[in-house]
């Protein structure tokens, strides 16, 4: 296991030669990936069964939390606490002045994990969009088939872009003639970790997917590309 990090100057100490680590995960996984791992070849459980069990576990935990109880599991321990300032020892809870916060701590199965993670120093890279996968709603595939005119979803990081800037956005580049096709319709969801949009009218062929944006704090256009090409099927 490896946890990548780069070093930046720290202002906590008076020594100008002191640095602090900024960590990053080289790859992210979703709950769908966890289910795929659980139901890999040789497993005795199906994806539907895994999802059903997860939903029941989630429901059971949330029901206890809603009652104000503490829930202790091998992965995480969950509890709640009251926040805010009370003016006097007899003041009652006022949702306009006070709040309830969920507290989440590592369970016994996670406490030894940090000791097994190997940190690796890497060079700092410029912030840029990163694409984990493209999901096509109609074909129900990931990183494979795209259906012109259908809905699609991109998951990743730093994906949000300025829809009014024609240089930014979602682009499909034909691997044959290198023609670029920008998604002109405004996305249904335009967030740093998720883009939901309607696919443009693309001719048959193979395409590279790119997301181009100017991330927060940056002054130049950056781009991120999906590792695998996608195909508009005949």
TrEMBL record:
Q: Which InterPro entries match?
A: Bvu_2165-like_IHF-HU-DNA_bdg, DUF4469
Where in the numbering of this chain does the Bvu-2165-like IHF-HU-like DNA-binding domain appear? 3-112
Annotated DUF4469 domain residues: 131-212
Origin superkingdom: Bacteria
Q: Enumerate the Gene3D superfamilies for this protein.
A: 2.70.50.70
- Name recorded for this polypeptide: DUF4469 domain-containing protein
